[in-house]
Amino acid sequence: MLKTRFTELFGVTHPVVQGGMQWVGRAELVAAVANSGALGFITALTQPSPDALAVEIARCREMTDKPFGVNLTTLPSISPPPYAEYRDAIIESGVKIVETAGNNPEPHMPAFRAAGVKVLHKCTSVRHALKAEAVGVDALSIDGFECAGHPGEDDVPGLILIPAAARALKIPFIASGGFADGRGLAAALALGAEGVNMGTRFMCTAESPIHETVKQQIVDASELDTELIFRQLRNTSRVASNTVSREVVSVLSAGGAFDDVRDLVAGARGRKVYELGDPEAGIWAAGMSQGLIHDVPTVAELVDRIVAEAADLIQGRLAGLCAGSDAVLVGS
Ligand SMILES: Cc1cc2nc3c(=O)[nH]c(=O)nc-3n(C[C@H](O)[C@H](O)[C@H](O)COP(=O)(O)O)c2cc1C
């Protein structure tokens, strides 16, 4: 219904993406997204090993025959996971679309290129997008300050970042951060993007493999209910506001060091949030788009609704604004 350079390039029906999400981007959700005609990404590092990732990819294939991808997040780390082995597991599994994020994708590009894998690189600034374009990625996903997870350190919201990217980039890109409905999709297209990427909105779907209590917490939350942790460490992350994230903010604001919050931010605690359904168990990512999320639909209902709403807006309200004689006055 909405054909863009993005849908053409990746061979999907809808210009809507479910980006990688630690502990959330598992086969059930990704297959549901693929079956809806959108593009979903299994999160590689949610799997404990490259072999386990291969099993997860096979499991997803059992649930869909539509295209899907894998997210490979290569954040700088003191003891990094074996990124090259995860990359090779993706390639050997025959997956043809990868979402890279967290760092410059250059070291992985030759292997992806040789295997005919299309790379959608996610980043948070125009300069990083230009760099990724120069190293040969196929498309970009540009995360504004609104987003869940890592918004970078520039604090530029999508309303500025997306048109700035449109002016600078040659390859297609999608807008990410703060999108949850058809209004957002129509706006992203108007700003020059070829589609949208969503995280928080897809967490809150029937097929999302997290505890129902956490989904309800997102429904109940507003756009004000997030915290930016790790600002002082220049490794900012937007997470759900809870007792743990507020304590992290307070310790670091008072001059604390990473060691002082290490236990609070442990990934194992964050994972418990989803498994036990305890939103206070640890740190978990959530974006400002929480304020636009009011239900827990199936993925298919959600994607159909967003695309239909955007198409209605474009063909109806927006086209209508141009149809009358006022438009001639405005344009003349
Ligand atoms: C729970 C959660 C976990 C995430 N984990 C990752 C990740 O591991 N790698 C990544 O590239 N992005 C990750 N993200 C970011 C999303 O892929 C996406 O860029 C972001 O959610 C967009 O903002 P939105 O939540 O406002 O839609 C995560 C987001 C959420 C909500």
Automatic annotation (TrEMBL):
Pfam families from the UniProt entry: NMO (PF03060)
SUPFAM superfamilies registered for this protein in UniProt: Inosine monophosphate dehydrogenase (IMPDH)
Keywords linked to the UniProt accession: Flavoprotein, FMN, Monooxygenase, Oxidoreductase
The keyword Oxidoreductase appears for this protein: yes
InterPro entries reported for this sequence: Aldolase_TIM (IPR013785), NMO (IPR004136)
UniProt GO MF annotations: monooxygenase activity
Highest taxon in the source lineage: Bacteria
Keyword Oxidoreductase among UniProt keywords: yes
Full protein name: Nitronate monooxygenase
Lineage: Bacteria, Bacillati, Actinomycetota, Actinomycetes, Mycobacteriales
